[in-house]
């Protein structure tokens, strides 16, 4: 009888991490930016049916990159958890931090389990506060790690080039127009690994843009920005 094939736990975790990272990198980037009145989400997404950015609760939004069926399952679970907690206790008990912790437990359990493949997803959970200092953006990776981001954050796709472009253009407390233009320009930034690559101008019809706007009169602060308004906000582009 032949001996079973042995793989060290360290190598197994490395292989699972490499698998997840490659799947995430194949997608297109999502950018979250703090602006004057809240948090802005921008993604290159030509699909009109499949959303990368969605509402979770009154002041909380969810954005993701990777495999759609996997992060859609996470989004639905988050909506159900938020609804149940808000109904059972109080709407103020539903927080972005609490949802981020719940997602971290789920992703960490799946990643460390040997019975199923790791999720090929990264997600943002953002909550808008009464002031800019109260805004929160949490980034969760495929293995359940949580990072508390400030100012702006990028995940998926060409992270390095998008992050470098956005870092150069980001201004604290910028108005929506300025933050949006910086984010869209960053998404079209050329890949530094390709010497002959040029910056792309992404059409408004290929963008998915949403905001958590603390100035909205309604309790629900999430709002999608239409293509018509995008054209107005972006103005003339080269």
Characterize this entry briefly.
The chain has 238 residues and is an alpha+beta fold.
Describe the protein.
- With 238 residues, the protein is an alpha+beta fold.
- 36% of the residues lie in helices and 23% in strands.
- Strands 8-1-2-9-10 form a five-stranded antiparallel sheet, with helices on one face. A five-stranded antiparallel sheet has the order 3-4-5-6-7.
- Helix 4 (159-169) runs antiparallel to helix 5.
- It starts with 8 loop residues before the first helix and ends with a helix.
- The model has no long low-confidence stretch (mean pLDDT 90).
Average pLDDT, rounded to a whole number, is 90
Q: Biggest sheet, open or closed, and with what strands and sense? A: 5 strands, antiparallel
- The string of secondary-structure elements, in order, is HEEEEHHEEEEHHEEH
Tell how many strands the DSSP assignment holds.
10
How many helices? The count is 6
């Amino acid at each position: 009888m032949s001996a079973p094939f042995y793989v060290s736990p360290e190598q197994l975790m490395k292989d699972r991490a490499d698998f997840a990272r490659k799947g995430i990198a194949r997608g297109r980037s999502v950018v979250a930016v703090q602006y004057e009145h809240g948090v802005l989400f921008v993604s290159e997404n030509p699909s009109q049916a499949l959303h990368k950015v969605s509402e979770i609760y009154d002041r909380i939004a969810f954005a993701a990159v990777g495999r759609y069926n996997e992060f859609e399952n996470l989004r639905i679970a988050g909506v159900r958890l938020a609804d149940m907690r808000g109904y059972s206790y109080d709407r103020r008990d539903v927080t972005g931090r609490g949802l981020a912790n719940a997602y971290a437990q789920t992703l960490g359990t799946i990643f460390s389990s040997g019975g199923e493949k790791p999720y090929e997803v990264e997600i943002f959970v953002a909550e808008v506060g009464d002031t800019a200092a109260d805004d929160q953006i949490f980034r969760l990776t495929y293995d359940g790690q949580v990072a508390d981001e400030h100012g702006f954050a990028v995940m998926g796709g060409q992270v390095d080039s998008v992050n470098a472009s956005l870092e150069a253009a980001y201004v604290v407390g910028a108005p929506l127009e300025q933050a949006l233009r910086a984010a869209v320009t960053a998404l079209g930034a050329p890949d530094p690994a390709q010497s002959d690559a040029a910056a792309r101008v992404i059409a408004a019809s290929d963008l998915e843009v949403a905001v958590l706007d603390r100035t909205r009169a309604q309790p629900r602060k999430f709002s999608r920005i239409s293509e018509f308004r995008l054209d107005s906000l972006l103005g003339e582009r080269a």
